[in-house]
Amino acid sequence: MGKPSLPETEAGGPHVPVLLDAVLAALSPEPGRRIVDGTFGAGGYSRALLQAGAHVIGIDRDPSVAPHVAALEAEFPDTFTFVPGTFSELDSLAAGHGPVDGVVLDIGVSSMQLDEAGRGFSFMREGPLDMRMSQAGTSAADLVNELEPEALANLLYAFGEERKSRRIAQFIVAARAEKPITTTLDLARIIEKAIGRKPGDAHPATRSFQALRIAVNGEFEQLVEGLFAAERLLPEGGRLAVVSFHSLEDRIVKRYFDPGKGGPAQSRHLPQAETEPLRWHEVAKAVKAGAGELARNPRARSAVLRSATRTGLPARPVQMAGLGVPTIRGAA
Questions:
Q1: CATH of the domain spanning 20-112+219-310, picked from 3.40.50.150, 3.40.50.970, 2.60.120.10, 1.20.1540.10
Q2: Residue 263, marked binder
Q3: Within a 10 A sphere around the Cβ of 196, how many other Cβ atoms?
Q4: What is the pTM of this model?
Q5: Residue 41 annotated in ligand binding
Q6: Which DSSP letter does residue 272 get?
Q7: Residue 106, annotated as binding a ligand
Q8: How far apart are CA 53 and CA 49, in angstroms?
Q9: What is the pLDDT of residues 70-106, one digit of tens each?
Q10: Given this model, what pLDDT does residue 66 score?
């Protein structure tokens, strides 16, 4: 089998799905197997899975994926199905399309979304301060211009791990008193003014933009709901592969696969608490991009793949406790 061809992004270059070879190895997309791509995006994983002979059900809430969906529907009319929606509901969305053997989730913003300035995800491109994956609901501009200073600072700290969140919030509040903050570069400049920029360091707006994007799209809640939806959907022996892009997401996935990793240490002098039977086994070691992939695709530098195999035990109810899901201090 040759190397999978890659779909084009709106920016004209090929969309490069990260850790593609590792994802394919984790899912074993043999002919006849049915796999859910819960975060379709530009269709990079779906295309590779289809070329390997698998049937694919693609899911995405972003209306802008339509051209990529149309391309795969034309090329693979008998083996590709697309269902609009969020991956947090992938079990119900995939219902009626036959038994499923695997699920892949690529968490966070896609390169396609970053490349489209009008979506407002990138602090490197001028665009409206939006960040809504579904293109509906509360935008990043709404949060930046309307949240109280303490709430804004707490959001930046909890979801972006931004240690200078209070100073950034102070500068944002001062700037919006003069005029609303409406563009990505406006906000990026305010943040850079607030905390400075050292040569060689990541852009000072990186963590704040991450925090706003996560808040706008409810990404942590979506991730947890999606993980448990995959648990409900997959039968014994089904495989789940999850690619995440920062430590907060990866911590959630790691603890989800092995709940014992997230619990408090037990003293050997006390009665030992019973451990809950595992719904996942054959949990693979975390996979990161090698030097070759990083040279081809710098966006892979923070990607982590975790995968596991479903046991035959009944699915658990959705639970946030023990997964390390960040919470905003003072939130109701």
A1: 3.40.50.150
A2: no
A3: 10
A4: 0.86
A5: no
A6: P
A7: yes
A8: 7
A9: 999 999 999 999 999 999 999 999 999 999 999 999 9
A10: 95
